[in-house]
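[recover] target loaded
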């Protein structure tokens, strides 16, 4: 499983539909794609929320991002996340 940060930006329509039920549907969608939601945070700044998720691969993360945007009207920017100790080992291997 790989970790992805899914940063969300609300549209004006998506803001009107904020609810615990929608959040449960998002979590269910991630699970149906073979993933797990590690945590969810509301943010201040350029993004309105972030889902930290585990998914099998980048293809599943792409599908999740598109599916959640279609379902919620929230625009998602999805980024892979590498634990810093793994990043350090990769960097040192090729440095």
């Amino acid at each position: 499983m790989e970790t992805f940060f899914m940063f969300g930006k609300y549209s004006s329509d998506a803001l009107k539909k904020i609810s615990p039920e929608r959040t449960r549907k998002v979590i269910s969608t991630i699970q149906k794609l073979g993933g797990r939601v590690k945590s969810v945070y509301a943010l201040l700044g350029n993004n309105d929320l972030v889902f930290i998720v585990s998914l099998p691969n980048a293809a599943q993360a792409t599908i999740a991002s598109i599916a959640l945007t279609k379902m919620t009207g929230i625009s998602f920017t999805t980024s892979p996340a590498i634990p810093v100790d793994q990043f350090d080992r990769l960097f040192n291997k090729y440095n």
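[recover] notes: The CA atoms of residues 42 and 49 lie 4 Å apart.
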